[in-house]
Design a protein that fits this description.
The complex is a heterodimer of chains A (248) and B (268). By secondary structure, chain A is mostly helical. Chain A contains 11 helices and no strands. In chain B, 32% of the residues lie in helices and 23% in strands. Classes of the chains: A mainly alpha (248), B alpha/beta (268).
Chain lengths: 248, 268
Amino acid sequence: MGALLVIIALVGAWELYADFGPVESFLLPPPHQVGQALVDDRSLLWSNFTVTAQEVALGMLLATVAGIALAVLIHLSPTVRRAVYPLLIGSQSIPLPIYAPLLVAWLGYDIAPKLAIVALICFFPIVVTVRDGLAAVDPELLKLMRTLDASRWRTLRVVEAPSALPALFSGLRIAVTVAMIGAVFAELSGSSDGLGHLIQQSIPQFETARAYAAVAVLSVFAVALVAVLTVAERRLLPWAHASRGAAS
Amino acid sequence: MTTRVAPGPEPDLQQPAPAAAIWLEAVRKTYPRRRGAPVVALADFTLAVASGEVVAVVGPSGCGKTTLLELVCGLSAPDAGTVRTEAAALMPQSDLLLPWLSALDNAALSLRARPRHPGQGPSRAQARERARALLETFGLADFASARPYELSGGMRQRVAFVRTLLAGKPVLCLDEPFGALDAITRQEMQAWLGDALERERHLEGARPTVLLVTHDVEEAVVLADRVAVMSPRPGHVVTELDVDLPRPRERTDPQIGDLRQRAMEALR
């Protein structure tokens, strides 16, 4: 509700500024033109959206599988942690605009480089949050498992993995937002479709309103994905919310 | 029976093993600190608990009670001295129930934690069946499917106790089991634990040996056959009091009050 009011206020201010301010409408189209573009170009936006959505979804899936696997390895082995963690953090500081075109040149113009870029950018938040979730288990609980003669694997399976699930959801929520950036950059670096490609095509044609409409679609998609994750978390992990409430 | 000794000269294993479920002799345990001298948690700590006996260890906070339980449960080894114990199950201070499991599955955790080899150990269904039977015995049948956050503090402790029993170890280590409960619930739970232990002792087979660590002197006197009073750090046993009173015991009994008084004096 609060978010809605803020959006209305911001869009209103934008409309007034774009209509009466000193800026050309091909640089900053007013919201009603963007709205018009959303309606007029709906089939164009939709077909490009499905491409980008597929890149985001599959890329995130790849990042989730690989991220969980690496987080578990790092958690189980201090050697792996020492060997991989600096590399992981270092890799995150390489600017996406530098490696995106290289990956496209290397992997081609189809979906492969997009998946690779989305996965690379989503990988880090998932590894870090899941690993922290695994390591955040109460040490007393681990002692208890030792007195119950639990193997390392059973402790991971029965205690550590379930308690890391809320952290996984936090990581996924962060990953969603960066996944959008990754997908758009991948498309800007070389593609024939997708919302990023559409934005890149629209601006030189002075179809700025269409570009803004594409950005709006991306934003709504990100918000919707986060909402789906939040609902899924509440459904799947009711204890994570209930116990937080009861403990305080 | 497992024996843990400090690294160093081999202990004289020719000596006949003492007929005790828990045997600690001249145990020393220190913890290194980042700066300064290491903390001496236990020094020259000696205690023997006979099989089937309920011994309460009382002492001021920080006297090394938790260290004692870690030694008995095999979670750490002494720096010096000897620790010989039968396998021990731990009931921790906070219930440590897993929030995503039902009361039933939390109780059954003891049976599911062990590595399962084909044809060895109980299946999930068998584990649940045994846990359900024991929850029923302890008046928790209606709460078997409840998650821990839906249970009261006292009920959570009872589930934790059932989990401890299901570990099937001859020694039960209870670490301040009711420390986190309010005064009224604590008294109820003490009476309940007294009954539960009585019940276990009258079952067929070996009676469990119980090591109860607490800072509540009354709790110790009401529940135990013997009370060992510990000194402040470095902890060792300063006096032992036999509680030779019939069960169930009333805390208003003047003999209980008398023993409580003696334990309090030893603590000073």
